[in-house]
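step: validate -> pass
step: tokenize input -> pass
step: predict -> running
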Amino acid sequence: MNNEGLDPHLLYAWLTARSLARGLPMPIAEHGGFRVDTGSETETVRWVFPCISDGLRDLARTIHQSRQFVKVCETSEALRAAMPAHWTIHAPSHVMRANGMMPRRQLADGYSIAVEQSGPVTSVRIVTDTGILAASGYGAETDGVFVYDRIVTEPEHRRKGLGHVLMQTLHEAMRDLDSFELLVATDDGRALYETLGWRKITSYASASIIMT
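step: predict -> pass
step: emit ->
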């Protein structure tokens, strides 16, 4: 796989699994990338591209409203160079994949874990003995891809291995052990996932129009 950019078929499977995990419409091929109608208060739609392309550049020139995001599996610098000046580039992220089995870890004392399965979607919640949510995350599997989504450990419960156990539990929910495991991480998240044996396969850059 190239240093930057992502295979379009893999990108489509990833977006499909993400939509399943979040209850969103399925991605639609458009402009050489994929459109997902997210419909949230902060984002009405996103276009995700496997690499910088003429379709991305042409689309960006037609958009002048906020809450519409363009994302690409490239560096933030590459996206900045491709976008008109009225677009704002956001903090970079990283597409990562699992690289072998994660080391096992036991759940810390004082916590319990609950797993729910709904079709291809798995949700995991870790709570304290008093019922306070400490960590949560989702996984969704489709077309040979298993996506880890919205992996969160609350600040006051970090550094106890909860995120590790959560990821381990989601991994064990996979139906196809040959599935390609993917997630998108921030800089801080990347450092954590690398300790679990994950590796970066491409950058992931985002842009939107911020009205003043």
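step: describe -> The first helix runs from residue 8 to 22.
step: cleanup -> pass
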